[in-house]
Amino acid sequence: MDLLRFATAGSVDDGKSTLIGRLLYDSKSIFEDQLESIELASKNRGAETTDLALLTDGLRAEREQGITIDVAYRYFATPKRKFIIADTPGHQQYTRNMVTGASTADLAIILVDARKGLTEQSRRHATISSLLRVPHVVLAVNKMDLVDWSEERFDEIYREFTEFASKLDIPDLTAIPVSALLGDNIVDRSANMDWYGGTSLLYHLENVHIGSDRNLQDVRFPIQFVVRPQTAEHPDYRGFAGQVASGILKVGDEVMALPSGLSTRVAAIDGPNGPVDAAYPPMSVTVRLEDEIDLSRGDILCRKGNHPEPTQDVEATVCWMDASALKVRDKVSILHTSRMARAMVKDIAYELNVNTLHRDQEATELGLNSIGRVSLRVTSPLLVDDYAENRITGSFILIDEATNRTVGAGVIRN
Amino acid sequence: MTQPASHALSQLDALEAEAIHIIREVVAQMERPALLFSGGKDSICLLHLAIKAFAPAPVPMPVVHIDTGQNFPEVIEYRDRVVEQYGLKLVVGSVQEAIDAGKVREAPDGSRNRIQTPVLLETIEDNRFDACMGGARRDEEKARAKERVFSFRDEFGQWDPRNQRPELWNLYNGKVHPGESIRVFPLSNWTELDIWDYIRSREIEVPSIYYAHEREVFVRDGMWMAANEFAVPPEGVPTEVRMVRYRTVGDATLTAAVESQADTIDKIIEETAATRLTERGATRGDDRVSEAAMEDRKKEGYF
Q1: Are B171 and A273 in contact (CB < 8 Å)?
Q2: CB–CB of B168 and A103 under 8 A?
């Protein structure tokens, strides 16, 4: 059984909570006491039907206001796969939550109300999924029961979406007409839409091929720290602990350490359950090398002919996540893989309107929930790849030096 | 580990890799980390992951137990044996001592659940821990579903759910000012079933009370409570001997047993996969107080 992480975004009106509730309910992942407790809570609020949103809105403030504020993680499993849902709010002021959910997602579900068609919110989801390079996107056209199961309406929305998406980078798009409320095309194929030749949503989630999404070509092994027991039993053990970001690292392989540039061979790889011959993403292992070379936290093992570029000048698309705006000449801390450094904002080239894709080149700062192109100068070289090639070595977060808050997220040369 | 040619990890291997990465980030980023250990199945898995994360070096942090003084004896015996076996340093924060010193007071019903929090916070402060790892999972409870893996606590140990640090990719921000700290939850993405699958696949020993056994019990609030020195049946409430097991292990005054015939790990997994009640809903008096019981306790600094 493998693991699929997917992100949903939207507000209660789209039927997002109903959709998630339906997936959880039909896969028997809602427990009786949870259902009882939300039935009781719905009644206490004077609602006539059970509000499945209460299941996902975990904070007091969310239940009081009837809105989703923060990312919630939900879990369900079928015999085929385990699923992690990052359930995020859809409004503009929660763009940062949407970016957070998309950062680890294998798949994004963009939910559209069949009556309303594409909205600003659905365009925003599509843009963020594309910027964060979510490999698979599902356009779920919901509330088909309210448009008479109309194929024409579905096609119209699909065309509108693909036209907008042509300006984006969405490698794999699947459109599914559904009724989350009635369950059509959620778990089983709908009997109301004979014209639809595709699969149900759950079938798609269970079977979408994610194996080739991982980068198995470029060896990147960022070092978290050095394991040196210095005990009587292991006086000379020296291993480099980390999680494989990409590529396949094998015992006997020649590897190069950056930034030192020194080469050696892999002597052994210790996995969590004993020695292994090869390590690939996302394994956490400890690598032993044939020669004692200079290598510590923040450095990367790679190959001589295939390595990230050390650079102090980073071009990135940044999502700003803090109330005080990012301005040119601001100084922040930057965390890239396991390396922490300081960075100064050299330039803000433009702010991206995530609804229209318009680039505002007059922008001089990035406010809360804004996305824009930023040039950074970093105090010491970072070992970066293009985010399009590598989601781990191509991403970073920015941390405020005074408050220590995480204030920004960046994807490199997007 | 089996390595299929497809170079894909099973969900259990992927969760293990993620947890080890998180545990290593704690040690790499923080000055004085600690591992919260209750002797429950989640913290047992967490400890085993920490042992794997640093092997063959010892676990470079102490193990902290907040001891309510109302424990199941099987769990304390297990704790002491594991500490001995892996050469761990054990720090005990004693709720009984805090009561004796007049720092905290038991609830009228004898519950010590809520007064664990000040004892935990004092233990953190006395030992100047800047990070405490715990075995909490997001599937346990709806407030926990919203919590970060690296969860910031201010100098009062408080969690502010509306003001959490965004958490992206596998990048964790452990920066704190003196007096502030981070709670870290490496098992955030695990479910109860994942925990049992892991215990089975890695052949991890757990305290005997997780397996079905005969025990003298009585009914309280519709739950089976063990009759012992900490939970005495009220007058007129009969006790009886039943086959039961524990799904969670907490304070003996609050934690209920479930009727079960599952006396092997395979049967527990079968039972867990088929159950229609969450583990906290089925067995924890502490979470039944209100819709936001957990959120309110977490804001004060609870685990």
Answers
A1: no
A2: yes
- Contact in structure between A16 and A112 (CB atoms under 8 Å): no
Q: Let me know whether A83 and A163 are in one domain.
A: yes
Q: Which domain holds residue A408?
A: 309-412
Per CB-CB distance under 8 Å, the chain A contacts of B13 are: 283
> What is the identity of the amino acid at A373?
R
Q: Which helix (H) or strand (E) holds B20?
A: helix B11-29
CA angle, residues A72, A1, A100, in degrees to nearest 5:
25
Same domain, A258 and A289: yes
Structural domain count of chain A: 3
Q: Are strands A309-320 and A371-384 parallel, antiparallel or unpaired?
A: antiparallel
- Taking the alpha carbons at both ends of chain A, their separation in whole angstroms is 33
Specify the CATH number for the domain of residue A243. Answer: 2.40.30.10
Residues β-bridged to residue B258: B245
Test B1 with A243 for CB contact under 8 angstroms.
no
Task: Express each pLDDT in B158-176 by its tens digit.
Answer: 998 888 899 999 999 999 9
Within its chain, how far is the Cα of B227 from the centroid?
23
Same domain, A149 and A42: yes
Cα B209 → chain centroid = 15
* DSSP β-bridge partners for residue A303: A306
The tens digit of pLDDT for each residue in A253-298 reads: 999 999 999 999 999 999 999 999 999 999 999 999 999 998 999 9
Cβ of B277 within 8 Å of Cβ of A31? The answer is: yes
A14 in helix, strand or coil? helix
The shortest C-alpha distance from B101 to chain A (Å) reads 35
Averaged pLDDT, A217-243: 95
**Quick one: A316 and A295 in the same domain?**
no
CA dist., res. A253 & res. B60, Å (int): 31
Structural domains of chain B sorted by starting position, each given as residue range(s) with its CATH number in brackets: 11-194+292-300 (3.40.50.620), 207-287 (no CATH)
Which of B42-56, B203-217, B229-243 is the least confident region? B229-243
Predicted confidence at residue B80, as pLDDT, reads 94
CA angle A225, A231, A237 (to 5 degrees): 50
pLDDT at A39 over 90: no
Q: What is the CATH number of the domain that holds A87?
A: 3.40.50.300
pLDDT in the model for residue B290: 55
